[in-house]
Amino acid sequence: MPVFDPEELGARIRTQRKKEGLTLAELSQRSGVAVSTLSKLENGQTTGSVETIFKIARAMRVLVDHIFPFAPAEMTNGRLLVTRRDGGERLAIEHYDYQLHAAGLIGKRMAPLHMAIKARTPPPIEEWSTHPGEEFAFVLCGLVELNTEHYAPVRIGAGESVYFDSIMKHCYVALSDEEPRLLSVCLSEAPSMKSAPENLFASAAPKP
Amino acid sequence: MPVFDPEELGARIRTQRKKEGLTLAELSQRSGVAVSTLSKLENGQTTGSVETIFKIARAMRVLVDHIFPFAPAEMTNGRLLVTRRDGGERLAIEHYDYQLHAAGLIGKRMAPLHMAIKARTPPPIEEWSTHPGEEFAFVLCGLVELNTEHYAPVRIGAGESVYFDSIMKHCYVALSDEEPRLLSVCLSEAPSMKSAPENLFASAAPKP
DNA sequence: CTATAATTTTTCCGAAACGATAATTTTTGT
DNA sequence: ACAAAAATTATCGTTTCGGAAAAATTATAG
After folding, report:
1. What are the helix (H) ranges across A46-165?
2. Interface test with B, best of A76, A82, A182 (most B CBs within 10 A)
């Protein structure tokens, strides 16, 4: 007795395939998964393997989670947490001062950080941040320079923002006389289970 | 040649298990998956079946996508887009003025909105926003009241924030004389397919 | 309405994953 | 350093999955 519903998975695959106007044979061609396997999957006659699911998702150009039956959404539908000026969770490191908002909310997918940029010159690249996912940074005041692995340094002033893949090594540097502050929202692929995800604050630098 | 990295899946399972302080034997007991299977999974020696993954996820009381490597990082790892003060995409509706940042970046999972709150009284509840996912709102200036379906109205001033499940009906209202501005970042659970970058799955697509 | 093609489902078998047990190695705690 | 606990590896029977081709169903053309 399966612990999840294979029919839902099958239905999603079929829906997506129809949407793309593909036949089983065509999808098989693209994905490298046999026609028979596709049929069995779509009809819930097998629970499938992770490998196969990935092949199918890739072939239809959808993210896996589109055809993958999730845990029900009602698990989290009524959370709300306010962070006051003196709230959240604070952390001061060499180059930045952090205030993590919504620190007490576990299972959230975004990590909102109110940070003050102390650094005036970029540290060695090994110390730059890198973490899977996406990052959005909005400058609240001052002038900030974002250094990244793949781009020329980018200057961002108050009211401006930058959105980037945070797996790129990156670091912020203050350019203005006043200490710049920015609001950074990091999206990790796996929702943070802890209030202060250490991987967010961890840099590429080796551990002592 | 697996199309995804079994070692990442294994690493996630192990990370989560350690976080919960479980041994393989205990997790086996709770999940109904044999110890040997767990070990092979964690060490990337098998690609695993969907059924097994679900059992494990359920046993650790996490959503499947916590341990499931849905979007390999190498798919998008070098994007970066700056939004200037006059950039982005603007939209004015009755109650708010929006500036969508990073508008030109397709496939992003967060939607950062710089918004000015014009409304001074809540509209009828049928007009409130509701969308699956999570929302983080940081007040830049002024005093804002967030009305939600399940909570008493919440007042948030400059430098404060709120994080909530955006499926709850919600609306923002201005309380201060000055028109409040806030930065809202919405996370949708399923990124829209229309915006899925071509290059994400290019390798699987046969050329016409 | 039939004939034919296209598509899907089913059948059969090899391949891979799973479970149980035991032996070996690694880690942990004292 | 030792003992205990935990994790890995090995083996093997069982179950499930995946692929090729046949069978059945559905769609299409004349």
Report:
1. 50-59, 64-67
2. A82
